[in-house]
Amino acid sequence: MKALGARLLDLAMGGDMAAARVLLVYALGKPTAAPDPDWLDVDQWALTAAAPAKAEVLQVLIDAVRPTLAAAVCEALVATDAKEAFDSGKSRVVDADFARQFSAIRQRKAAKGR
Hints:
single chain; mainly alpha; 2 domains; 6 helices; elongated
């Protein structure tokens, strides 16, 4: 590839316009079309109209929560509710299998001194 690029450069510098075009297209990319001056205002209006409204931005800021934070909060709330339900004996919230598992976890933590 290096030798091919060097050869294209040599040809382009020697006046080969096709080699210069290929070299420039690969090095700089194909040029984009020039904007139509008659449509500049319309294009600007379309860009402005496509942007989110201030209310939409504020709604996202108010409602958005990082998924990791949401998961951590939910996990803490579920653990707290389960512990309170278990401690108060509310069997409608905690089924027997979960109660056994939770009790085993509490016993392991107590044995480790936590």
